[in-house]
Amino acid sequence: MVKLKRNNTTVKIDAGELVGYEVNGYQFIHQKGSPGWSSADTEMFPIIGPVNEADFRVKTPKGEAVQDQHGHLRQMDYELEHQTDTSAVFAKEYESGTEVSNSKFPEKSTEEALSWPYDFRFEKSFLLTDDDLEVHFKISGEEGMPFMLGYHPAFKLHSKSPVILAKGKTISLDEVLAVGSRALQVADCTSITLKDEKEITIETEGFGNFMCWTEVRNMVCIEPISFYPYAVEQVNIHQGFQMLKDSAQFKVVLKPKA
Predict the structure, then answer these.
(1) Ramachandran category for residue 245: left, alpha or beta (phi over 0 → left; psi -120 to 50 → alpha)
(2) Close Cβ partners of 212 (under 8 Å, ≥ 6 residues apart)
(3) pLDDT tens digit string along 20-48?
(4) Pairing of strands 242-243, 146-147
(5) Could you tell me which residues come within 8 angstroms of residue 237 by beta carbon, excluding any fewer than 6 positions away?
(6) Tens digits of per-residue pLDDT, 132-164?
(7) Do residues 51 and 58 lie in contact, with contact meaning Cβ atoms separated by under 8 Å?
(8) Could you tell me which of 47, 43, 52, 45 has the C-alpha nearest to residue 234?
(9) Can you list the domains of the chain with their CATH numbers?
(10) pTM, full prediction
């Protein structure tokens, strides 16, 4: 467990997963073991969304790749590369064609192993400042590699009537629940505020969109995404790819209100 500390703020990171962001005694992150989701955050890469209706196959310029929901990066382990009192850097490296065990097999998937026809390095870093928590992502690898990226943090809900503020509109928890597993799309948006007992704003660079998901009332996932996967049929998920040019960088800033 990596702990970052600054003033009255504590961040806890378990093998690259943000499992705690506590500011003045108030916990913003969904706690593992609580109802709703078994994780606290994860990354969706190199695809976002399910592919079960496409026989778990995704089209790439190098042929079809075997993928499962939200990609195979989440099935890999992070290595801690650097740590200070207020920062930490984690990375995953992948060699093209390497089979990665699929934790969804056999209960939720027919695919025992996943693979991708490109080399890549995926870096996730945390920086705790006086005012906020920055989460940076850097993708490097083969020129022209297709990919999409989503960040999937879960926020603990403390009140019965939290709201999400986005693009001048107010979204209720009931509206998110009503959409179900597809997740509520918030298109062309770089900043969302979750208003609960305390307030936190999620600001982003590089993603351009959000989707919001929950199936319970004690947490909500507010997910920056480069592409909303339900905009196309699963067999056409490749239409949401962007192409890597040397490297790509994305940023998420969690800004609690004082």
Answers:
(1) beta
(2) 164, 171, 176, 183, 184, 186, 192, 220, 221, 222, 223
(3) 999 999 999 999 999 999 999 999 999 99
(4) antiparallel
(5) 47, 49, 51, 54, 58, 229
(6) 999 999 999 999 999 999 999 999 999 999 999
(7) yes
(8) 52
(9) 2-256 (2.70.98.10)
(10) 0.96
